[in-house]
Amino acid sequence: MAIAITKRFTSLRPFRHSILHFSSSPSLSSAQLLQESIKAAIETKSYQQIPELLNASKESHQNPSPFSFLSTFPEKLRTQIIDEILQNFIPLRPRYLPRAAYSSLLSYTLQSPNPLPLALAILQRTLRSGCVPVPQTHLLLSSAWLDRRHQSHPVSEILLEMQSIGYRADCGTCNYLISSLCKVDQSTEAVQVLKGMAGAGCIPDLDSYGYVIGPMCKLRRTPNVVELMKDMVARFGLSPRQEMVVKVLGAIRSRKDMWRGVEMIEFLQSNGVYVGFESYELVVKGCLECGEFVLAGKVTIEMTKRGFIPYIRTRQKVVEGLASAGKWEFAYSVRQRFAELKS
Question: Of 155, 236, 135, which is closest to residue 195 (Cα–Cα)?
Answer without folding.
Answer: 155
